[in-house]
Design goal:
Blueprint: H1 9-43, E1 46-47, E2 56-57, H2 61-67, H3 70-102, H4 108-133, H5 140-145
Antiparallel strand pairs: 1-2
Length: 158
């Protein structure tokens, strides 16, 4: 997308700010996804030496070896079985459960609680651990460093 040639200063500013806002995501996508994909494809044409040293170019030999391996084909079959059987079954089961939990049935609140409790309990447990780590009286960080810092309640630190 090219920068607009004609237009107001506001349009140009919005264009620039738009690109600045998506820049961190684009950099992360390129550095963490796109570059490793191309590196993997490039390195797939080499035989790796000890600890990545002494790589030898072997062309498509790795691919020929891979496609000739019966374990690879078994993994492909297992993946398709999973994708064709387990995924649709899980979606249907989740939809049926959602519809049942949305109806007016006896004990609906208890069923909802049982269903959603693991999703609420894990973050609550994590929060409790963090509060213990940063506690000003008996927190682990203060114990390790031998200090009495109010990590959470001091506005200068928080």
């Amino acid at each position: 997308m090219a920068m607009p040639k004609k237009g107001t200063t506001q349009e140009r500013n919005e264009f620039i700010w738009g690109w600045l806002f998506i820049l961190p995501t684009m950099v992360g996508l390129i550095v963490l996804n796109i570059i490793p994909i191309f590196q993997t494809i490039y390195e797939s044409f080499f035989k790796t030496g000890d600890f990545g040293k002494g790589n030898v170019f072997i062309g498509v030999e790795n691919y020929a070896k891979m496609f000739g391996d019966p374990e690879v084909w078994q993994a492909v079959v297992n993946t398709f079985k999973y994708a064709l059987i387990e995924v649709p079954f899980s979606i249907v089961f989740a939809l049926v459960l959602a519809v049942l939990l949305n109806r007016k049935i006896k004990g609906r609140a208890a069923y909802r609680t049982i269903f959603f409790l693991p999703m609420v309990a894990a973050p609550a447990a994590i929060a409790m651990v963090w509060r213990w780590l940063f506690n000003s009286e008996f927190g682990l960080l203060n114990h390790i460093f031998g200090t009495k810092i109010n990590w959470i309640s001091d506005p200068k630190i928080a």
